[in-house]
Amino acid sequence: MSDKNTHETATDGGATRAAQRHQNTDYLNEEVNLLKPSTAYMRDHLRIVWAGFVAWALIVFGPVTMTAIAPEMMTTTMPVLGFPWHYFLVAFCGPTGALVLAAIYARQRDKLDEKYGIEHTTGDPETGEHGDSGEAAATDGGVEQ
Amino acid sequence: MTVPLQAEALDISFKLVPAIIVFLMMASFLVIGYVFKVADAEGMWVAGRGIGNIENGMAIGANWMSAASYLGLAGLVALSGFYGLAFIVGWTTGYFVLLIFLAAQMRRFGKYTAPDFVADRFNSPMARALAAFTTLLIAYVYSVGQARGMGLVAQYVFGLDIIPMIVVMMTITVGYLALSGMLGATKNMAVQYVILIVAFLAGVYVVGFTGGYSTVLPQIEYGALFSELSRQFSEPFIGGNGYYLWVATAFSLIFGTCGLPHVLVRFYTVKNERTARWSTVSGLFFIMLLYWAAPAMAAFGVDLFAAVNNLSPDAVYNGQQAMSGAEGDVIVVLAAQFADLPTWFVGLVAAGGMAAAIATTAGLFITASSAVAHDIYSELINPDATQRQQVLIGRATIVGIGALVTVTAFNPPALIGELVAYAFSLAGVVLFPMFFLGLWWENTNRQGALAGMTVGLLLWITSIINSVLPAYIGALGAAAGESGALIPIYAQYVPPIGAALVGTPLVFIVTIAVSLVTPEPPLETKKMVRQCHSPEPMGQQQTAEDIVSNSGGDAPADD
Questions:
Q1: Element (H, E) at B169
Q2: CB contact (8 A) between residue A77 and residue B226
């Protein structure tokens, strides 16, 4: 995972603007409401969250619902593997899909932090709670492993 | 409603080598825990700072794998067919919801036991008590499944009848608990995970290979078996297990995952919220290693059951010699036994299941004792409680709950996986809405939380009284009659195993409605919630509360 993009080195203007907006936001004075995101960051974040949630709901409850609606079609046997389709889609694809979505979400979330010029340090209390000091201190500390 | 106790097909006798394996496995947990033990709280923090996402992922996996995953899952897939898959889906995909909505925010909040979170977020000792009571109930119901699992499997190794076996195993569990406490052994969960997953996968691979079912990928190769197994193994929605029950079960397990206190606690030791996110991903992967393989083991077991007993595929499910609930619950061990593998190898597979059950139960008992001694006794009943009194109450709780679990496990109302699922639906109904609303809507207040938790608890308890207790209490049983439930329509839509499908939305509505008509929570509390969503990195040891109380003059928006 690269986390070297501070807002100075961000590749496009949008990222710099986002980082700027982030600098000017006092998150402790912005309301938290899932349905009414109040900061630019949360709006961007919730877009990822809801997209992921919808995809997840389709993967998890889609095949079983289809099986209830069209049992004949769903219980036909798969070529090569030999599973009935409904069984394979639920037993294998559901959990695996959730795993893939989880990795995609975590990746997207890292990108979002890059866009806003946020770096996660190892979490030393000395770096203080605000990103402006963290940015200077953590050019290598945040690299995973 | 109650299920047969003893697994007839299991080879029940004392076996020396497997017994040694069990003791070595348990001893290795203790020794490793002791070697890696940390001297003081500060030491724990320093160690905690070093925990990366792979190691924490394994810890999530070890925490997750109880007898329900190790034994119960394959049992459900073997006995209940397609309905059993609701458990596979429910116990894995919930981690995604946990990841996108709760993991990082919980990490930022900085309080990890359910009672602590609820008390601090809603500023209410009463809410703490309700959360502690729920935690206690969860620990109890969860442990009954574990006790049944360890009793059944231990029969293969130690050869006693089921009832003395359960008593012996619960005694060992309490002894393990005392030893690990005395040695100061913090569980080294990464090692524990490796031991358990190796035992399980070794079983699946070796049974698959020697049975001629599979070579390198049993997780996929068992597909070829479907044409030979009874239709009942894969037929969707048969018997009473319709679409509604399937979805209700999966829903309860998914949102129960997000409400279980012992899952959230795993985010406590990670470096930062980014590690919290990635360790959820790796944790899910490590869990999936078992969940991909469990249905394969179930399929092998069902096929071997028919072969060894000279049954037709359909006779496994119907008729005189059909597979019993107890046999299903030990199908993982039975499959290894049927495949004519050496005793020590079957013992290894059995030992993995017992170790998973003992370690989980020990952890649940600790949670229960702190819920009673700390959250209920010293916070509510006796604020001046001395350390000594608290320790005494804690120990009494462990003895009490241990006895209660043991007795309940003699005559359990359901399969291992189903018993544990009751605990999930309780967590999904009562705790998940508090975590979710508490973190995502700052105006959720004390009154809302109290009302929501009360409604959730009542809904779950009435569901249990309605569908489970009639099998135990004569008067209720008589009132219930044929259907086994006092109010059949309630049992149909709010079954204990799937109570969250109705319950969770209901608790959301109650909590939101009551919060709207009562005063908003104090600004201090709102700021704590806002801090959980701020993208600013936080220090390892900071909680949202610390930041809020220090935020006086140096907030960036001042300029």
A1: helix B162-182
A2: yes
